[in-house]
Amino acid sequence: RVARHSHCECSPQCSKPHATSFPGGCAVLASEALEQPKTFAQVAPTVESDTARHSGGGRASRTLVAELPPLERGLVCKVNALRDGRLTFFPGNQTVNLPSINFMKRHGTVFLNAYTNSPICCPSRAAMWSGLFTHLTESWNNFKGLDPDYVTWMDLMEKHGYHAQKFGKLDFTSGHHSVSNRVEAWTRDVNFLLRQEGRPMVKLTGHRKQFRVMETDWQNTDKAVNWIKEEAVNFSQPFILYLGLNLPHPYPSPYAGENFGSSTFLTSPYWLEKVNYEAIKIPKWSALSEMHRVDYYSSYTKNCTGEFSKEEVRNIRAFYYAMCAETDAMLGEIISALQDTGLLGKTIIIFTADHGELAMEHRQFYKMSMYEGSSHVPLLVMGPGIREQQQIPNVVSLVDIYPTMLDIARIPVPQNLSGYSLIPLLREKAESEASPRGPRPSWVLSEFHGCNVNSSVYMLRAGKWKYITYSDGSSVPPQLFDLTADPDELTNVAIKFPVTVHSLDKILRSIVNYPKVSSSVQEYNKKQFISWKQSLGHNYSSVIANLRWHQDWLKDQKKYENAIDKWLGK
Fold it and tell me: How confident is the model over 452-507, as pLDDT tens digits?
């Protein structure tokens, strides 16, 4: 058995760009048709399970297999809001022990710069399942995702003879999430400013031996484990398994009272003890008067413009890291189940996330932001044919999952996808041989059109630069960050480097006509709001006054209704 380690493969002097976000998933692919490389099969005893508490020692080799076997068995495990990928690298990995992630790093490959295509649950998942950018599927918010009959990569695999099984959170189709969530997104252009969330808080539950805190996720993990042990192990046909976890997404708090609507970072002493408080970094904040106007709107609507002590911020971050540790343990249960059934050495595992969690960076929690804590996700791959202890610095994103899954399974990849297969990067194949579409672009795109942000947002990451622009590209000032010199994204250098801004904006406009998309979203928001309002009839005033923003709304109900009427052109 292999002991779980928390150290990073990088030295403290490592200058490579490090990824930073944890809300995603894991995929497992396997084949018995081809001889498996001994390098992985021999060193793939299970990682320590928190339920079994096994431990031991071992070392992995670094042999690269030239060809990946066709997928015959696969598992995808996806988590929600797992802290940005920086937790998987030095120095971020020093804050909490994530043994299952570390196991995957030692025996597989980690992508250092992986990004969500939209930093919020449903649109991000829609991009992963469709392989298309958000503006192409029009997945504008948590209420507007893919159509229920959309053909996903898992559907295609099933059509090609794979036994497909899903457990846990899916959340990529339209029609879900609360009324408050959708109305807040529709009315983001209205000229008012209301707190839509309660103040973020922490809560300790249970005792030092209680490791099952997020019971729903554990139940879904149990289902996946049992399915592997009781069904998958006996299949003669290939299979693909998907597990979606809600952790480490914060928990909702009471609708009314002092802590109404706030997100609760909830954990038990068992997990909190895994966190190294001394290693927790207290993020620097700009003064409220110096914040970018969109950032201020986000911070205000998330109820984060008040005073927070360093102790409060440190606790929020510590509790969040503890929730990541619990999530990591669920991944460990899946890996252990594969080992117990003899499938681990024959299976490719992909672990990634929807988006990150700001955890009070930039005076915000949640996601809905292009800052690294929100948009930068983990992406790890382990299995036969995957190089061990490899770090890939290329920028990649979740739309790449679709062609990657089909590529490994030897299923023809549609040429209209936004994403590119990760296989050439994983096996170091020449880009010229990689795809009929040509080499992978040197940029990734992310966009956001939902709540807590009063403008459509577009982000282009290319090299050391992160370019963020808004709405029509002129009404709101853009942002430019040099992630090498300013990894915390505290200094907007857009004015200092106008040529770079122009160049990146030109690339962005070649990908998407973003002023036109922004206008389409504005029209969509109005139409949806009008339809919703008409459906309520005489109950409209009462219903809208008692959404999550009720504590502010009820102070001057007529003022806010008039603002909406003005927005609608009345």
Answer: 999 999 999 999 999 999 999 999 999 999 999 999 999 999 999 999 999 999 99
Give residue 365's identity as a one-letter amino acid code.
F
**CA 339, CA 349: separation in Å to the nearest integer?**
12
| Tokens (6 digits) for 504 | 């990146």
More confident site: 120 or 79: 120
Contact of 29 with 240, CB cutoff 8 Å: yes
pLDDT at 28 over 80: no
- Entry pTM: 0.87
Return the SS3 of 163. Answer: strand
Residues 313 and 362 sit within 8 Å (Cβ to Cβ): no
User: How is residue 161 written in tokens?
Assistant: 């003879």
Cβ-in-10-Å burial (0-12, 13-18, 19+) of 214 comes to buried
Report the share of the chain in percent with pLDDT over 70. Answer: 80
Catalytic residues: 121
C-alpha separations of 324 from 112, 320, 524 in Å: 18, 6, 36
- Of 35-49, 125-139, 195-209, the one with minimum mean pLDDT is 35-49
- Reduced to 3 states (helix: H, G, I; strand: E, B; else coil), residue 247 is strand
The H or E element that residue 480 is part of is strand 479-482
Q: Is 496 exposed, middle or buried (0-12, 13-18, 19+ CB in 10 A)?
A: exposed
Instruction: Give yes or no for residue 59 having a pLDDT over 60.
Output: no
Cβ(137)–Cβ(212) under 8 Å? no
Name every residue whose Cβ is closer than 8 Å to that of residue 73 and which is 6 or more positions away in sequence.
28, 29, 30, 31, 32, 232, 235, 238, 239, 240, 343, 346, 347
Q: What confidence score (pLDDT) does residue 449 get?
A: 96
Give the span between the Cα atoms of 88 and 84, in whole angstroms: 9
Contacts of 532 (CB under 8 A, 6+ apart): 182, 183, 186
Angstrom distance (rounded) from CA 238 to CA 118: 32
Pairing of strands 379-382, 251-252: unpaired
